C-alpha cells in the first residue's frame, strides 16, 4: 500500500529516489516547452535550463508523456521525472484536476521499483492536492497476488510526498485523508475484480464484506441460499441455481449519528458470467470475472463514506451470484417469480444481471430511501453506444440524472445521460409472464434500464449506471488506470453521498 504525505521540504533538499515535475506546451503560435508551477527550485538547480534539457531528451509536454533526466548536483534526488500536462493554461487559469490526476498516475506507473518519490506538481488549492494524491495512489496500483515475485521484481511506488502543500492546513489535511480513503477502497474494489472466480465466489465475496464491516464498524447482513428461498428472491436464485457456488444478497449499512438522508446503492455482483444455458461464445467469457464490478463499486463507496464520516446514511446491496450452465440451471422459457411478486419469462439466461438487480432494487425500495442508484456491468449494447471509457446514466428523474452526470464529470469519470423510452416497455411483453427479461435488440442498454425501472418502488428517485465499458480495462494501462479492474463509478458514488449530505440534491 502506497503512503501519501505532505512535506514542507523544498524540492531541492528533500531526500527522495525520484523527483516528479510537470511540463507543458506553451500557449500561442510559438509553442515550446515550459516548466509548470511547483518546480521552480528544480529549474533553478538546472541553471534555469530544465525545459531546454527536457526538450533535448524529446519532451514536448503532451499529456501522457514521461521524460527522465539525471539530476544535477544541486538536487538530492538522483533523477527528475517530467510528466506532460498538455497545453499550459492562461494567466488567470489553473490546470484542471483531471489533468493533474492523470499526470500523477502516469508518473506513479513509471516509478515502479522506486521507494519514495517527491511530487512537485502545480498546487493552487486543496482540490489539486486531492487530484494529485488520487492519481499517484491509483497509478501505483498493481495486482500481484497470484504472481511469484522474485527478488528482482519491481514493486509499486512505496511512498508519495507532495510538495507545495501545507501539512497543518485543515483543508490540505482533509484532501489527503479523502485521497487515502477513496483510493484504498477503489484499489480494494480493483483487487476483487481481478481475483479469479474460482477464489471469489459469492460466499467468499460476502466474507470480504463482513470482514470490512467489522473493521470499520458497519452493519453487515448476509442472506444465504436458504434465506433467499424463504424470502422469495426468485431473480437471484434463478441466476445462481445452476452453480455449485450458491448466491448471496449482502446488505452493508453505514449510519451517521445525525439524522441524515438515506442513499441506497445496489450493485450487480455476478462473480462469473458464463451466460448460463445461453452460453457466451469463445472470446466473450475470458474476462467475465469482472461482472461483479458494480457490487465492488458499491462496497467500496459505502466503506469510503464511512471512513470519511460523511453525514448521510448509506446502504449498499450486493446481489451476488455465479451464472453457470448445468442440469439445474434456469432454461430459456422458464418463468421466475421475483421478490416483488412479478413474474419474468427468461428468454435469455445471459441477461441475468437485470434479474439479480430487480430483486435487490425491490428490497432496497422497502426501506424508502431518498434515492437509489444501481451500478452494473449490464449490457454490451452500452459499450457499443459509448465505448470503453464512458458509462451510461439512466434515471426516472431528469434532474437527478443530470446531477449524477455533473458529479461524475467533477470526479474525473466520463459518463453520458441516456433516455428511458417508454415505447421499449411493450417490447418486453410476455404471453406467459408479467414481462420478459428481453426486448428489442436495438437499444439493448435502454431496454435493460426500462426493465429495472419496473422494480423500483413508487415515488423513489432512482438512477442506473451501466459501467460495462469502463469497469475493466482489457488494453494497455494509461494514466492512473491499470490493466484489469478499474474501480469505475466509486468516485462518482462517493461524491454523490457527499453532495447528498450537503443538501445539494434536495
Automatic annotation (TrEMBL):
Binds 2 manganese ions per subunit. It catalyses: Release of an N-terminal amino acid, Xaa-|-Yaa-, in which Xaa is preferably Leu, but may be other amino acids including Pro although not Arg or Lys, and Yaa may be Pro. Amino acid amides and methyl esters are also readily hydrolyzed, but rates on arylamides are exceedingly low; Release of an N-terminal amino acid, preferentially leucine, but not glutamic or aspartic acids. Its EC number is 3.4.11.1, 3.4.11.10. The keyword Cytoplasm applies. It holds the Pfam family Peptidase_M17_N. The active site is at 280, 354. Mn(2+) 2 binds at residues 268, 273, 291, 352. PROSITE patterns: CYTOSOL_AP. It is an enzyme of class 3 (hydrolase). Presumably involved in the processing and regular turnover of intracellular proteins. Catalyzes the removal of unsubstituted N-terminal amino acids from various peptides. Belongs to the peptidase M17 family. This is Probable cytosol aminopeptidase. The gene is pepA.
Amino acid at each position: 500500500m502506497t503512503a501519501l504525505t505532505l512535506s514542507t521540504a523544498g524540492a531541492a533538499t528533500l531526500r527522495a529516489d525520484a523527483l516528479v515535475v510537470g511540463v507543458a506546451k506553451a500557449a500561442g503560435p510559438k509553442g515550446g516547452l515550459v516548466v509548470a508551477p511547483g518546480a521552480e527550485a528544480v529549474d533553478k538547480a538546472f541553471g534555469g535550463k530544465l525545459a531546454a534539457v527536457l526538450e533535448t531528451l524529446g519532451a514536448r509536454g503532451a499529456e501522457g508523456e514521461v521524460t527522465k533526466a539525471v539530476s544535477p548536483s544541486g538536487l538530492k534526488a538522483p533523477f527528475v521525472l517530467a510528466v506532460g500536462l498538455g497545453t499550459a493554461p492562461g494567466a488567470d487559469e489553473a490546470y484542471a484536476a483531471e489533468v493533474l490526476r492523470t499526470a500523477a498516475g502516469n508518473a506513479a506507473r513509471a516509478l515502479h521499483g522506486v521507494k519514495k518519490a517527491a511530487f512537485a506538481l502545480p498546487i493552487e488549492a486543496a482540490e489539486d492536492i486531492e487530484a494529485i494524491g488520487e492519481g499517484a495512489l491509483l497509478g501505483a496500483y498493481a495486482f500481484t497476488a497470484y504472481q511469484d515475485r522474485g527478488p528482482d521484481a519491481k514493486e509499486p511506488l512505496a511512498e508519495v510526498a507532495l510538495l507545495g502543500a501545507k501539512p497543518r492546513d485543515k483543508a490540505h489535511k482533509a484532501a489527503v485523508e479523502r485521497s487515502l480513503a477513496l483510493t484504498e477502497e477503489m484499489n480494494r474494489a480493483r483487487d476483487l475484480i481481478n481475483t479469479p472466480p474460482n477464489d471469489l465466489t459469492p460466499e467468499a465475496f460476502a466474507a470480504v464484506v463482513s470482514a470490512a464491516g467489522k473493521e470499520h464498524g458497519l452493519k453487515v447482513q448476509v442472506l444465504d441460499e436458504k434465506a433467499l428461498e424463504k424470502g422469495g428472491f426468485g431473480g437471484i436464485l434463478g441466476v445462481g441455481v445452476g452453480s455449485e457456488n450458491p448466491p448471496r444478497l449482502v446488505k452493508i449499512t453505514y449510519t451517521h449519528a445525525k439524522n441524515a438522508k438515506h442513499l441506497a446503492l445496489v450493485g450487480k455482483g455476478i462473480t462469473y458470467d458464463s451466460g448460463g444455458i445461453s452460453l457466451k461464445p469463445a472470446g466473450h467469457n475470458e474476462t467475465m470475472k469482472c461482472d461483479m464490478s458494480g457490487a465492488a463499486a458499491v462496497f467500496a463507496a459505502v466503506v469510503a463514506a464511512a471512513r470519511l464520516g460523511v453525514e448521510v446514511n448509506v446502504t449498499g446491496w450486493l446481489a451476488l451470484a455465479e451464472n453457470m450452465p448445468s442440469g439445474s440451471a434456469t432454461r430459456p422459457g422458464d418463468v421466475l417469480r421475483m421478490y416483488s411478486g412479478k413474474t419474468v419469462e427468461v428468454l435469455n439466461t445471459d441477461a441475468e444481471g437485470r434479474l439479480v438487480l430487480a430483486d435487490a432494487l425491490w428490497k432496497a425500495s422497502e426501506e424508502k430511501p431518498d434515492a437509489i442508484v444501481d451500478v452494473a456491468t449490464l449490457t454490451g449494447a452500452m459499450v457499443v453506444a459509448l465505448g470503453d471509457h464512458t458509462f451510461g446514466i439512466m434515471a426516472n428523474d431528469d434532474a437527478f440524472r443530470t446531477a449524477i452526470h455533473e458529479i461524475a464529470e467533477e470526479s474525473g469519470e466520463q459518463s453520458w445521460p441516456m433516455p428511458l423510452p417508454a415505447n421499449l416497455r411493450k417490447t418486453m411483453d410476455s404471453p406467459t409472464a408479467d414481462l420478459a427479461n428481453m426486448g428489442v435488440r436495438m437499444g439493448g442498454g435502454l431496454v435493460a434500464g426500462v426493465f429495472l425501472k419496473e422494480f423500483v418502488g413508487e415515488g423513489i428517485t432512482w438512477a442506473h449506471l451501466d459501467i460495462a465499458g469502463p469497469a475493466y480495462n482489457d488494453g494497455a494501462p494509461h494514466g492512473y488506470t491499470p490493466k484489469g479492474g478499474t474501480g469505475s463509478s466509486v468516485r462518482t458514488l462517493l461524491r454523490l453521498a457527499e453532495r447528498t449530505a450537503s443538501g445539494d440534491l434536495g
